[in-house]
Amino acid sequence: MKLSTYCLFALCLNVMTLQAQDFVVPDDGDFVAAINAANNRKDYNRRFTILVKAGTYVSNGSGELISTKVKTSQGADSTIWFPSPIVTLIAPKVTIMGEGRDKSIVENRPTYEGISITSTLFVDGADSTIIRDMTLRCNFNNDPTAFANRAVALRERGCKGNYLRNVRLLSTQDTYYTNAGGDTTLDSCDIHGTVDFICGGGTVRFNSCTIHLEPRGKTGSRDVVCAPATYPDEMGYIFKNCTITGSPEQDGRYHLARPWRNAPTCVFLNTRMLLLPAVAGYCEMHGNLPRLFAEYGSVDKDGKAVDCSQRKTTFKNRAGETVSMQYSPVLSESDYQEYK
Question: Are 256 and 293 in contact (CB under 8 A)?
Fold first, then answer.
């Protein structure tokens, strides 16, 4: 009997678990040294495997000087240069594996917030990256305004065939900056955040993942799960058999998505919503229009069908004009079958 591609992939993952590791954190060095070793190896055709032993490891990033703009006390913009907290993987065929999602934790502690200057790990053009059984965290936990900080735990760009399994991504806003120009599959992962905590481009498949809404401090503001910026020729964000849970304050208030850039697609398939979104489901962003924001088979905590009759299907364009989207916010059975 012919094995499916998924089964073959799972077998390969199990085989790799038994193989000798190329780099062990912390025995052979820290997490930055591990990524540098993967980038600097001579043979990119052979898979390079990094084992992160149980423990919490603080990554100081590359240390190269990068800049950001901050406001002075007089309100003027001032450019500040500081050591980068980001470690960047550019080499293909790298596996980063821990000894358990809650046991192997890699975090950084950025000084300044920002979507392009905070990533704990930046996977840049590194095809066939596998990350499994660990946590990546961008840690602003000691900042009382952390819920409003743009702080990226994982960023991907232009990578083909990336795969995450049993990975936890922890942060606040912009936790997972997705794979613009590429494709990634996540299985049984756990993603935490507040505002647009899944954002960016690419084709990204979330299978049986937990989406965790963090509290917004004293503001009580609404969380937004994702802000896709996908192109029409990409499948966009596909949430399949996922669970939405988190802070009780968000029950009946948060939004599932808002359109960041381009003409984004985002579908929620057979989602279990332990916390219900606002009845509109979706909201505006910068005058951009979605290609498709839709659901199929959404159920509440009791397994009852969620009423999607009031889902938002009109959005304002950049000219401020209200535009009606030419799609149903509930997928038909035949449309759903295209995602199976």
Answer: yes
Q: What is the DSSP letter of 330?
A: B
Q: Which two tokens stand for residue 18?
A: 């038994």
- Give Cα 181 distance to the centre of its chain: 15
Q: Is 13 helix (H, G, I), strand (E, B) or coil?
A: helix
Task: Give the pLDDT confidence of 2-12 residue by residue, as tens digits.
Answer: 434 444 455 45
Identity of residue 334 = S
Q: DSSP E strands: which ranges in 99-161?
A: 104-108, 121-124, 130-138, 154-157
Task: Give 10-residue mean pLDDT values along the chain (340 residues).
Answer: 44 54 97 98 97 97 89 80 95 98 96 93 98 95 68 97 98 95 97 96 98 82 94 95 96 97 97 97 96 98 97 97 97 92
Answer positive or negative: Cα dihedral of 173, 300, 248, 107.
Answer: negative
Q: How far is CA 76 from CA 70, 73, 148, in A?
A: 8, 8, 21
The structural architecture, per CATH, of the domain 5-58+86-337 is 3 Solenoid (2.160)
pTM over the 0.85 mark: yes
Output the CA–CA distances (angstroms, integers) from residue 160 to 47, 64, 137, 284, in the order listed: 15, 27, 23, 30
Domain spans in the chain, listed from the N-terminal domain onward: 5-58+86-337
SS3 content of the chain, % helix, strand, coil (to 5): 10, 40, 50
